[in-house]
Amino acid sequence: MDSFGRLIKTCLYLQLKLSTHMKKIIVLAFFLVIGVSFTALCQTVYSSAKGEKYHTADCNLSGDADNMKLDAARKAGKKPCGVCKPDEHFKDKVIQCKGKTADGNRCKRMTASKAGKCYQHGTK
């Protein structure tokens, strides 16, 4: 019997041995790991085209920076800002700013502020 055949037999044997609960736990753990890694890759940071650093949404130094994904900023060779420390910032719970723009729309910036407002709306 070739090695592939033995592998199939072993997998079938193990499948019969695993209980239904164990299978559910394995599937749940798999999706949890995938979800956490996907979330880490989808973090939004802010950086200008010419800038060498990337920032959080509520950083005073972000200025008129455009949003981009964290992995894209790293691939572009940009470094984290030393003031807002975006790599440490993503460990906190980040929510969308509760402030309103001049047009009356909800602010799109993200913040970890306990007040729930970014630097622009938190001072008013």
Task: Describe the structure using short key phrases.
single chain, 124 residues, alpha+beta, two-stranded antiparallel sheet, 6 strands, 41% helix, elongated
Protein model, in words:
This protein is of the alpha+beta class. It folds into two domains: 3-40; 44-122, no CATH class. It has helices spanning 3-17, 20-41, 70-75, 86-89, 119-122; strands at 44-47, 53-54, 66-69, 79-80, 95-96, 110-111. The strands form three sheets. A two-stranded antiparallel sheet has the order 1-3. The termini are far apart.
The number of distinct helices, counting runs of at least 4 residues, comes to: 5
- Radius of gyration computed on alpha carbons: 22 Å
Helix/strand class? alpha+beta
pLDDT < 50 stretches? none
Q: How many structural domains does the protein architecture include?
A: 2
Could you outline the blueprint of secondary structure elements for this entry?
Elements: H1 3-17, H2 20-41, E1 44-47, E2 53-54, E3 66-69, H3 70-75, E4 79-80, H4 86-89, E5 95-96, E6 110-111, H5 119-122
Parallel strand pairs: 2-4
Antiparallel strand pairs: 1-3, 5-6
Quick summary of this structure?
This protein has helices spanning 3-17, 20-41, 70-75, 86-89, 119-122; strands at residues 44-47, 53-54, 66-69, 79-80, 95-96, 110-111. The chain is an alpha+beta fold.
